[in-house]
Design goal:
The protein has 414 residues and is of the alpha/beta class. It has 13 helices and seven strands.
């Protein structure tokens, strides 16, 4: 862009006193050189004529703030109370969230600032504006975390590699494993780590905090295999030395669990567990340093609550197809993640009767679907056989894209 501006500045057509035919020829040459349209090239010539000095030295006037400081403070508190979602999700549920927070008086210290005018300003914010206003607040609350993964060169040639370009896993029970270091701003000394195991097929995730990962990694792996809803059929991890060692490989061989690894410095190979590290671990435990036994017990108690909420009550979205558009690859179909437990092992809710006859109870259960993405629970009035809402065509996130299955009374996560 800077080169184009300099070419525009040096164009003789920027001089106002020239013949019309000469200006047209110079304009055509500028369009052919830069690829701009004629209208944009004319505007660029006018701006370049009024500019003094190179384009890189021009200081842009900062954009004036459209919303008040009180609206910014209220937005920060609403974002925190809503679970710190992105602007794309917060803008959709802003009206309902503000109504509930005001009605139940949960705004706390910013309640005095939440006047009707300020609330109208917060409701009028777009998703991009919300992200732009919250960026300094997010950066201060979540500084860059340190990586405690030390590459291990042993056993690397004997462990097969699984990449993101391989065929997707279709059988539940395969786990992606990773550890999160609660080291704060320094890697010196001993600190706690959280072992994360997630199933890419069902979305079921288990968290367990341990002490030294090189010594207590076996205890964390045994806890995960014991509390997994279905038998573990395989594990995949990165090239960290806490996993790539003879002790872990021998333990997996004794348990008859196949092992694969990702490529070095390719986080997309373990995309599912990397997403859980940020959305589950970092979001709830932050980036503080934890190292005591009391903090170890408190974190494991926290993970029981997080797993109960995320695994049982929140929706799970899966991509089943991709289309190439001018903007790039786009998801085309979404499906409901399968339940981690077989149908025979699920316990029904008390007092709920099955209306089907005994001979006809072997058909596949139909997933429950929602119409509105901001609704926290499935819509009982919608059935899979009905036609989609005219305002929400198939393939959109508001029609059948997000499905929620309240997986209650299945297993104990503690």
């Amino acid at each position: 862009m800077t080169a184009r501006r300099e070419i525009t500045k040096s164009t003789p057509g920027s001089t106002p006193r020239r013949a019309k035919a000469d200006k047209g020829a110079l304009l055509d040459a500028l369009v052919a050189t830069t690829g701009w349209t004629c209208d944009h090239a004319r505007r660029a010539i006018r701006v370049a004529s009024a500019r003094h000095g190179p384009a890189a030295a021009v200081v842009r006037k900062p954009r004036p703030r459209k919303y008040s400081y009180d609206a910014l403070v209220v937005l920060q508190e609403v974002w925190r109370l809503a679970g710190q979602p992105s602007g794309k999700y917060l803008a959709v549920v802003m009206d309902d969230t503000l109504e509930r927070l005001v009605r139940f008086r949960e705004l706390g210290k910013v309640a005095d600032r939440a006047t009707p005018q300020v609330l109208d300003e917060v409701r009028a914010m777009s998703a991009a504006t919300i992200d732009r206003y919250l960026k300094p607040h997010k950066d201060s609350a979540y500084p860059n975390a340190l990586s405690a993964t030390t590459p291990s060169h042993i056993l690397r040639s004997s462990v097969p590699v699984r990449t993101s370009m391989d065929d997707p896993i279709t059988t539940a029970g395969f786990l992606e494993l990773d550890t999160v270091a609660h080291c704060g701003h320094t890697l010196k000394g001993e600190f706690l780590r959280t072992l994360t195991g997630t199933d890419p097929v069902t979305g079921w995730t288990m968290l367990r905090t341990i002490r030294n990962a090189f010594i207590h990694i076996h205890g964390g792996l045994e806890w995960i295999t014991k509390h997994a809803p279905i038998p573990v059929t395989g594990v995949d991890f990165d090239n960290g030395s806490e996993f790539m060692n003879w002790a872990v490989i021998t333990w997996c061989d004794k348990q008859a669990i196949p092992v694969t690894r990702s490529r070095p410095y390719k986080h997309n190979d373990n995309a599912h567990v990397e997403q859980r590290n940020g959305d589950w671990v970092r979001r709830h435990a932050f980036r503080y340093r934890y190292e005591t036994d009391a903090e170890l017990a408190l974190l494991n108690e926290l993970w029981d609550l997080v797993m109960a909420r995320k695994n049982h009550l929140l929706p799970c979205v899966k991509a089943t197809g991709w289309d190439t558009t001018p903007a790039g690859p786009q998801e085309t179909h979404l499906r409901q993640a399968p339940h981690p437990l077989p149908a025979a092992h699920r316990r029904r809710r008390p007092g709920r009767q099955d209306p089907r006859p005994a001979a006809g109870r072997t058909r596949r259960p139909q997933p429950r679907q929602t119409h509105q993405s901001h609704h926290p629970h499935p819509n009982p009035t919608h059935r899979p056989g009905r036609s989609p809402h005219p305002r929400h065509p198939p393939g959109s996130l508001t029609h059948a894209g997000i499905s929620c299955e309240a997986r209650t009374n299945t297993i104990r996560t503690s």
